[in-house]
Design a protein that fits this description.
This protein is mainly β. It has helices spanning 5-17, 31-34, 62-65; strands at 40-47, 57-60, 75-77, 84-89, 102-107, 124-125, 137-138, 140-150, 164-171, 178-183, 190-198, 211-217, 233-234, 238-246, 249-256, 264-271, 292-299, 318-329.
């Protein structure tokens, strides 16, 4: 008996979402035993215990992470599903250039732990870069299957970062050509998935940095009183994303409802090297930039200009993200 077209499509899309089937995740194992974390370091939102990093946010090296590191609050294996869980509160110790707390992985591509974080050997480039031979790779791919299980219940709805979390990034040395967001207002059942491109404003134009939003599921920039975005994604609902930089092009693919008869797939492709994106005259492009992937829970609901409170975990002032698949591929 032949499969119906929709059923076949569902099977094909589901097969592309993840090479880690749900049953393959062991709730009794550390994250590094369920996932290949051999090219990642980790930040968690507490003060580092290493004497040389006193007063700085906790950084867990590639080696430490792969020795079975867990943190019972911020980075652990879900005891029921085996998913890799990242949690970040609204207010905690942060990295130097951010006011937002994070529990987040940072890709490190060099085999040598003595190589600096921002050395080209730990990062990748696009094909237009004039010094590609110095980099770990030209291009690379990050794929994930993820659910956002909680976002802060406090915040100012007029600020787009309230009630939101970044679940994946391409980061350059200063700016971000890609941030993947999930945002859900407290009075909505559905949240929205969207991605931002930040123009690469340099030098005297650095203050002209601008995030340009692209809707995926639901809509960015929701406000109280707006209609619930029913084409969006509920808390706890799985989606997948794939980011693949080939040549100078950033390819994006998002899938929701992969296990249903009507999977929804959205794709995007932009040249991140050429600049002047969508006519933005301050965008110099990223041709000569270094890049690294990030994945986890980068809580955007800070207690500063975003207008979020910090009444604690019990009050709901945190974000929680679960990964069921995470794969980094630099060839």
């Amino acid at each position: 008996m032949k499969l119906k077209t929709k059923t076949l499509l569902t099977a094909i899309l589901a097969a592309t979402v993840s090479s880690h089937a749900f049953a393959q995740l062991d709730p009794n194992k550390a994250p590094s035993e369920n996932f290949d974390l051999s090219q990642w370091k980790l930040n968690v939102p507490i003060e580092d215990t290493k004497p040389e990093r006193k007063g700085q946010v906790m950084e867990v090296s590639v080696a430490e992470l792969n020795e079975g590191y867990v943190h019972p609050e911020w980075f652990y294996t879900d005891s029921r599903t085996g998913a890799l869980v990242f949690v970040a509160p609204n207010k905690a110790m942060t990295t130097p250039n951010s006011s937002n707390a994070r529990s987040e992985l940072h890709a490190m591509l060099a085999d040598n732990p003595e190589v600096g974080t921002y050395d080209p050997a730990n990062n990748f480039a696009v094909a237009s870069n004039k010094n590609t031979e110095a980099y770990a790779s030209v291009g690379g791919k990050l794929s994930a299957e993820v659910s956002v299980d909680h976002v802060s219940v406090s915040g100012d709805h007029r600020h787009n970062d309230s009630f939101s979390v970044v679940i994946g990034q391409i980061h350059a040395r200063h700016n971000e050509p890609l941030k993947i967001f999930y945002r859900k207002l407290p009075d909505h059942e559905y949240g929205s998935v969207y991605w931002n491109y930040e123009n690469n404003a340099l030098g005297d134009d650095y203050h002209k940095r601008l995030d340009i939003s692209h809707d995926v599921f639901g809509k960015a920039k929701q406000r109280f009183g707006h209609e619930d975005p029913q084409d969006g994604v509920k808390l706890g609902e799985k989606i997948s994303y794939e980011v693949n930089v080939e040549g100078d092009i950033m390819h994006l693919e998002f899938i929701k409802d992969a296990d249903s008869d009507n999977p929804v797939k959205k794709t995007f492709a932009i040249n991140i090297a050429e600049g002047n994106y969508l006519g933005n005259k301050y965008d110099a492009g990223y041709a000569q930039s270094l890049f690294f992937y990030k994945a986890g829970a980068y809580n955007q609901c800070s207690t500063g200009s975003v207008g979020c409170t910090n009444n604690g975990m019990e009050a709901g002032d945190y974000t929680k993200v679960s990964f069921y698949h995470l794969e980094l591929d630099h060839g």
